[in-house]
Amino acid sequence: MYVWFTALAGLAALFLSFSRKLFPYFAQDCTYILRSIKLGARLTKYKKVKPFYSIVDCFLDAAKRHPSKTFLHFEGREYSYGEVDGQSNKVARALRAAAGLKEGETVALFLANEPGFVWTWLGLAKLGCPAALLNFNIRAKSLLHCFSCCGAKVIVTSAELLDAVVEVLPTLREQGISVYLLSEACNVTGINTLLNKISQASDEPLPRDLRANVSIRSTALYIYTSGTTGLPKAAVVTHERVWAASFIQSVCGVTSDDIFYINLPLYHSAGFLIGMGGAIERGMTIFLRKKFSASQFWDDCRKYNVTVMQYIGETLRYLCNSPMKENEKNHRVRIAIGNGVRTDIWKEFLNRFGDIKVRELYAATEGNIGFINYTSKIGAVGRVNAVHRFFFPYTLIKFDIAKEEPVRNAEGLCIEAARGETGLLVGKVTQRSPFVGYAGNQHQTEKKRLRNVLKKGDLYFNTGDLLRFDHENFMYFQDRVGDTFRWKGENVATSEVADILLMAHGILEANVYGVKVEGHEGRIGMAAVVLKEGEDFDCLDTCKQVCNYLPSYARPRFIRIQPCLEMTGTFKMKKVRLVEEGFDPAHIEDPLYFLDSEKKTYIRLTETIYRAIISREIKL
């Protein structure tokens, strides 16, 4: 008997060893599948229960369970679940009384990362009012556009952003829009103060019937995204999407005992949905910072016992570029959730700062498909999983980069990309994975719909992203297609930048695109321009226009003067060759200019300046 048991134990050990070699990710796949099924069952339950159980109800339950537990750390102050709950009640009552808000009416939030952002949104959600999260970097034309396309009649802002609001105030007043300032006093006519009203309001719970008509498919938020053309678009985020995004932390293994560090802007889906929404779903504590600081990051983590961090590729690069210190691995961070990190930075980050589980993900605010690399495979953005693919069908299709369109066969159907081949990611539109689209922009919504993909009559969401699957079923992000570039973690619509350049003195035509810079994630803005006959390039006026109307990440740092712009047969501007040629003056005969932020003008791009940029002596 002993011999039999010994033999069986040996066979079992041999089988496990063989299985690990043959299926090295089997255990992680199983854990991911089980967590996903469990969360899917919860979402199905929330869909059916009446009244609808939203993320706000989840927060209220957490506030009842542990009212004294810290919900927010911010600039040395702690705010408990109970305190945030009470403050959001006061905000809701103050806005309801002052602005006459009713269920379903949208309110725009033009705020930086601060506790007021959190409890103002919660207060609106308790009233059943969707919130439009405005990027606090936008100005003038972009600000008015973002505000108007969501249909809001009320905007809430703070004193630090007052100048940007005053700039567009005449237009807002013409449109009958009310502006409320989170301040006790304001001497600008037409702007209402809100803090004095909040301080006088009751913090008693609000009746549940104020949001009685909110359902799983109701609009919860408008989050702005730059698409293939035009100004930023308001992606419609339903309550179902809020729940789905909030589950990402759970899938990554985050628990209620963790402390989550948010330094990404709350107007983004990453900071708001994954960060704050996920923290509410977990019932955990958030450390909120106004903006990212590489020099303070690890000190913050040690001081506040941070265990989960959030990142974009740029933030990890900044951390890796910071001066080395002896205590770099002296922290409690165990999980990092984010997207856009380069493979070399990923490796350096782990070598310098310890065994942190990097959970790289792929998703789009308005999209219907997303992935999480739950295995820590360096470089991958996710993994092909049969269960995930069954519930959320997707595929990669062949894409013609020069023509910027899918390759189709004789029957007019798309052709699936082979394993190892780069293809366009498309997600099938179903009841379980819908594509809601953009508020007030049916044209752009339709442009993201791709029909007759694998069979006649089917409908897919066009992500606009090129990916690749390898032989181990890992997926890798390759590039973005269309007229956008991504810099400093922000998507930039090239046509919006071109519109601003055409306002500058002497510029007749502008072709905007993104170019790679060695050692940096994404692509930085560049433009090829044609000057009006007899005009010289006006360095000062061009700088003035781009600085007045564009946030820093969208400003074209390089200008290339050309005698004419190369066009396609259908009069579309050609960009592929321009992108490939970049901005090296040694290989480009056209005059090149560089935006000098300190001198506040464009200057001639010399080989000396070029080398300083490449060696990072000049910071971009």
Automatic annotation (TrEMBL):
A Pfam family matched by this chain, by name?
AMP-binding
Keyword annotations:
Cell membrane, Fatty acid metabolism, Ligase, Lipid metabolism, Lipid transport, Membrane, Nucleotide-binding, Transmembrane, Transmembrane helix, Transport
Q: Which InterPro entries match?
A: AMP-bd_C (IPR025110), AMP-bd_C_sf (IPR045851), AMP-binding_CS (IPR020845), AMP-dep_synth/lig_dom (IPR000873), ANL_N_sf (IPR042099)
Q: Note the topology in the membrane.
A: Multi-pass membrane protein
Q: Which reaction does it catalyse?
A: a long-chain fatty acid + ATP + CoA = a long-chain fatty acyl-CoA + AMP + diphosphate; tetracosanoate + ATP + CoA = tetracosanoyl-CoA + AMP + diphosphate; a very long-chain fatty acid + ATP + CoA = a very long-chain fatty acyl-CoA + AMP + diphosphate
Ranges for domain AMP-dependent synthetase/ligase: 61-384
User: Where does this one sit in the cell?
Assistant: Cell membrane
Classification via SUPFAM superfamilies:
Acetyl-CoA synthetase-like
| Residue ranges occupied by any AMP-binding enzyme C-terminal domain in the UniProt entry | 496-572
The organism's superkingdom is given as: Eukaryota
List the GO molecular function terms: long-chain fatty acid transmembrane transporter activity; long-chain fatty acid-CoA ligase activity; nucleotide binding
Under Enzyme Commission nomenclature, its number is 6.2.1.3
Tell me yes or no: is Transmembrane among this UniProt entry's keywords: yes
Leading EC class: ligase
PANTHER family from the xrefs? LONG-CHAIN FATTY ACID TRANSPORT PROTEIN, LONG-CHAIN FATTY ACID TRANSPORT PROTEIN 2
NCBIfam families cross-referenced by the UniProt entry: PRK08279.1
Family to which this protein belongs: Belongs to the ATP-dependent AMP-binding enzyme family.
- Name listed for the protein in its UniProt record: long-chain-fatty-acid--CoA ligase
